[in-house]
Each structure stands twice: as structure tokens, then as C-alpha cells.
Amino acid sequence: MTAGAIEARAQPFFLQRTRGQLFCLYHPPRGDCRGAILYVPPFAEEMNRARRIAAQQARELAALGYGVLQPDLAGTGDSSGDFSDARWETWKDDLAACCAWLGERIAHPPVLWGMRLGALLALDYAQAAPHPLRALLLWQPVTSGQAYLTQFLRMRTVNAMLADSASEQTGTRALRAALQSGDILEVGGYALDPALAAAIDALAPLERHTPPCPVHWFEMAAHSADKAGQVLPPGAARTAEAWRSRHARLQVHPVDCPPFWAAGEGVDAPALLAATSTLLREDRLGH
User: Is the dihedral angle over the CA atoms 200, 202, 205, 206 positive or is it negative?
Assistant: First the structure.
């Protein structure tokens, strides 16, 4: 069957929630079902820029026999609410609802597949998930919510500088102060509510979490080596070392891949797709 035929089998629907509805795209498994996978998308514009690659991966995994659910979390994409309504705890509730939806259809513990900040959200949810998870697939996970928020706020500072209107008030320190005073900030076309910003800022760094299930970390920005001889930048290397010291079941997969979540259309990620598909094809999730 061609990729186009596989894509045609994807099922769009709205998952009803008490505060609205989530737009979801479900890729049913082909042949015998081998498991369930829930995609946890990245943040803000990174979600849109990663959508095409994530859809390609979802189709490949469905062709391997996995049921893959791709939701737009509350306040994002085609789901109910505006981005200014988005809250971290609401997103965790959305993941719970999506896991329940998958559980009604597939008799396997779900795999959470999180990307960038979505990887941190997946791990945060996994800490207190009401039901066991089979594994975590983390694509280029954000290692610090605080650092990520600062990076996100810098977009507004850079835009102000390009418009030749930069001042002390456009610095990230001033922007954080505005959030703390209750202001909603427009950053890169997204209205960031202080409650969501505070939740991201307060997240424990990735290294302080203890994964409750096997983790497969796909690292696409590699600079230094961890204890297993795999390539990791310093922050990720510290996290890997901390997790292994607590006997976490971690496998790192260095991948030659451009940062497509920060690029425009036309950037492909064949090595990432192949590495992820190989892992699932060979059923090495539990390593």
C-alpha cells in the first residue's frame, strides 16, 4: 500500500471534553495491533513546524501495527479555546483523556511520544499517570522549563530590536516581571497567559525527574559524549547521568537531523523517522 493510501486511512475526530473538544487525528494500526502511541506535541509555533514530520512518523508507525493518536491540546490548533486559555494542568488532563480513549480501543499500555516541551509534558504526566505506560519516546526533549521560557520570551525581544524599538522594557527580565504582574504577553503571535508561563517556569529540570518506564531519547543536537559513548550536549548528558544513577531504563539514540521544529517548510528528517521506526519495528521499547 502506498503512503498516500495509508494517509487516507487516518481518522479525524473531536474528543469531547467538559470545557470543549480536542481535535484529534487517529492513525489505526495496519494488520495485527502491536500497541498504542500518544503523540504529545511541542509548544506554540514549534507544533506547527513539526506537524508534517510528526504526521509522516505517525503514518509509518501505523503501518507497523501501532495505533497512533495525534491531538491538538486545549487552546492549540483546531481544539477549543485560544492559546491564552491554555494551562499546563489542563494539558495533562488532556493526555489522560487521550490515554483513556486509546485504552478503550487497544489492550496495550500506551507509549507517550513527546517532542521538545511536549517531551517534558509527557514526562511530567507520566510521574502520576493513573495507569502504567509502556515507554516514553522523547524527541529532542527540553531539559529545563525555565530556560525554555526564557528562550521563548527572547523572540519578543528580538522582534522589538528588529523593529528598532528595543529598550530595557523588552528584555526577558522585564517580560517576566510583566507576567508576574498578571499581564498576558504576545510572543511570536501567541498570547501567553501568566499562569501557563509560571507553570513552565516552575517545572523541575528533566534531570530531577525519575522516569517510571523505559525511555528512548532521540537527540538531534549532539556535541559531547555520555557514559555509554553516545553523543549528548551538556544538559542532556547531566540528565542521562542522573537518570542512570537512579537506575532509570534509558537508551539514547543520537540522530543526524536538522532542527525542523525551528525551520520552515521543506526540511526533512529521514534519519529520525528511520531510527524511530526501527525501534518500534524491532519492538525494543522495553530494552
Answer: negative
